[in-house]
Specification:
Dipeptide-binding Protein, domain 1; 4 domains; 23% strand; globular
Length: 577
Amino acid sequence: MRRKIQVGSISEKAGRNIDRNVVNRLDRLLNVRRFLLSWILLVVMLSGVVMAQTYELGNFYQKSSGVPGGIYSEGILGDFTTANPIYAAGPVDDTLSKLVFSSLLTYNSNNQLVGDLASGWSVNSTGKIYTVTLRPNLTWQDGKPLTAADVVFTYKTIQDPDSQSDLNSSWQDVVVKEVNPTTVTFTLSNPLDSFPYSLTNGIIPQHILGNVAPSELRSSKFNTQPIGSGPFDWKSLEVAGDTPSTREEQIILTPFAGYHEGKAKLSEFIVRAFHDQNNLINHYLNGSLTAISGLNYIPSSLNRSNLYTYSFPLTAAEMVFFKTDAGVLADQNVRRALVEGADVNSIINGLGYAVIPVREPLLIGQLGYDPTYSQSGYNPTAAEAQLIQDGWVMGKNGVRYKNGVPLEFNLYAADTRDSRYVTTQLSQEWKTLGVNVQVIVQSDADLQDTVSLHNYDALLYGISIGVDPDVFVYWDSSQANPQSPNRLNFSEYKSSTADMALEGGRTRSDPALRAVKYQPFLQAWQQDAPALGLYQPRYLYVSRVNIYGLSEHKINTLTDIYNNVQNWEMLTGKIAD
C-alpha cells in the first residue's frame, strides 16, 4: 500500500514537473522556433542577394566574346574544280584557294594593301623595279621552307603559255628574279604605279610542282590535293549526289599550325559546294550549315530572327555599257539621252539594300575622282529634247525613228533578281522617251559567252576596279581590239584623249600628278557617255551565329572577307572587360 502511495506521489510530482517545465513553456519554445526560422530565412535571403549581386557584377565586369574552337561549315553555290590559285575560277575555287594559299600582299580591314608573305616592298626611282622582301622562316604546310624561289617559280609558271593560266596576260614583259632566299625583284618594261596590287594571287610550291610539265599542270592531282602556306590545311574531299541538283562537294580543312599569322582559331573549316540554290537553302534550314556565301538576296524562307547578315561594298561598278561602234548606240547624242533618261537614284532605292552610287568611271573617294565630271543626272525633258534635236521623230507605235531606222537595241544581263529589276526599270524609263529596248537575261555560262564575243548592243555588267584608279583595261582603245588578251573594253570605247590620259595617269607615282593626268579622261568620258554608271555592288554573307572577327568593310574581291579568317571565332564565352 505504501508503495502505491509512493508511486502515486512520484507520478504527481512528475506530472507537475512536466506541466511546469514543458507544457507551461511550449509558448516559449514556439517563439524560439519562430526566431530560429526567421534567422535561417534571413540568412538564405542574404545569400541569394549576394549570389545575385555577384552574378550581376560578373556580367558588368565581363563581356561576351568569341572563344577558340568549333566546326565552321560554309555553303557556296557553284562547283569545285581546282584549288590551285593560278587556275582558280568561280566562287568555290576562289574560296578554297584563299583559305589554303598565301599571297605576297593582301588587304587589311581598311582595304589598304599590306604584306602577307611579304614583310615589305619598295620601288626604285625609275618606277620600273619593285623589290619584295619575304618574312623570315616561312614554311609550306608539309614543313618545307617557302623561299623566293617559290615566288619566282609561281610567276614564271603563270607567264608560260603552256600552263594556260588566266593570269598570263597580266604578267607579260615582267622579269621576275630571285636576289636571295628572302628577296625578289620584279622589273617592268614601263613604270606602273598600280603594279603592287597585282601581287595578291596565291604562291605555289616549287618543290612539289617544279618537275611537272607546264602543259600538265591543269590536270595535276595537286589541284585537288593541294599543299599551300595559308591558314588552313587540306584534309579531305568528298563528293555526293547523282544528279546536277543534288550534287555536292564537301572539302574539310584544318588549321595550319605553322601559319605565319598564327594558328586559326576555328577547329575546322568545311566548304560545301551546292549546284542548286534550293538544296543549299534547305541544308541551311536543317542546321547543317553555319553560313551561306554569295546569295544575291535573302530568301523569305530564312528565319530572320536567327540570322546574321554581313553586307560588304565591293570596289566595283555595276554599269550599262553601250557598244559605241555600231548601231543606234554609235550616236553620242542617243547615249547622252539614255543617261539623262535613267532615274538612277530611284533604281538604287528600289534595290532594297544600301549601295554606293557610281557616277563616273572612278569610284567615289578614289584617287582622281572628281564630282565635276559626274555623268548627267536624271532629266527626261532634256533627254527628249536632245533626241528631237538629233532628228529622232516619234512614230505612231511609240518608238522614235531617224531616216527610217527605229531607235531600238538589245540589253543583255545576268538572270538574277537584281539584274531583272534594273533592266525592267531602265527599259520602262527609256520607253517613255520613245526607245524600244529588248531585254535578254542569260545564265552565267551563256552570258560569259556573250560578253567574251561582245555579242550585244548594251550590257548590264559589273567590273572590278579595286583600290587603285587604274581603269586602263576597261576604257583604253587598245582593249577594244579583238586581238586583246582580255578585251575588257566592253563599250568598245575609242578616244585619243582618254587614251593619253589613262596611259599618263598609270605611269605616275605622285598621287596629285596622277589625279591631274586623269582629268582629261574623266571629261571625255562624261562628254561621250560610253556607259551609264549605276552602283557599287555588294557581297552578301549570311550566318546563323555571330562571327567574331568578321566585320563589314569595303572589299575588292569576294574572297577578301577571308583576309583575317585565322581570327574568326564562332563560339561565345565570357571574358573580363
